[in-house]
């Protein structure tokens, strides 16, 4: 990777302009980062990792530890200040301000709300702290790392069309309107579904990606739709797919219609093995997290990459998603050591794993 030096400006004066946050905000930040921010940021060796929520299991289980491990490998004396916003955009703004005040030289930010995160970007850049938009796009960020999110939706839509035989009524459960990726997933899915013979009888934008909301929405729709007449369900991620499955199970459904998903959560993979969910979209998080860590360390060291592509005027790394169904679990998430067979094939799923050739 070719790199060129970056001129860095002292942040002392700019940091003095950062607004002090309330004691309650400081307490919330400390609670999230106490175990991770072991350094004091002196010498400009602190990278702040700000993730949006914990309801999606990938963040705590994969993104955080993979990012931290790669930073440690690349930079022995670097500190990762980890902060999670718990789906609260205001809290994330406070956390970003606190991270800069505490000496972060780079922010790696996965925003709760892409629009409000533009303010974080401007404030950070005024303090000479570059921002890497992680997984979700932020206008004006210095860099962006994610997957081809419209393609994610297309993979989901294509799988649903194939599984239904391109006929029948479906439900659509999209992601949070504040999540910039959710609009891309939705657009990609509609690119396929709108050209098919499937009929969307009800569509829902889940305000916080909540599985509980997904279950409630699906249950309410089953009051108007005979479950046996439901050809399939577009669920934008595995958490919502789990909510959909719970609603169908509670309604006494024995043969489940195809349900899509995303993130290759362990529970989602297990449902796929058991025939309770049709597919998920696997996004190799290790590649994404390690690329973000490499970029953050490069920026901290005054270097910048020359191998990015352009996405909405932001230098970017755009990675490819992969559709996962029962017949390629072994060749995707198991092969990449995302999960082991033992993790997937617990006692509850032993028979299903044997039938799927996974045990």
From TrEMBL:
UniProt entry tagged with the keyword Signal: yes
Signal peptide feature range: 1-30
UniProtKB keywords: Signal
Gene3D superfamilies: 3.40.50.2300
TM region positions: none
This protein's GO CC annotations: outer membrane-bounded periplasmic space
Location of the Periplasmic binding protein domain: 47-303
Cellular localisation: Cell envelope
KW Heme (keyword) present: no
One Gene Ontology molecular-function label: carbohydrate binding
Name of the protein: Substrate-binding domain-containing protein
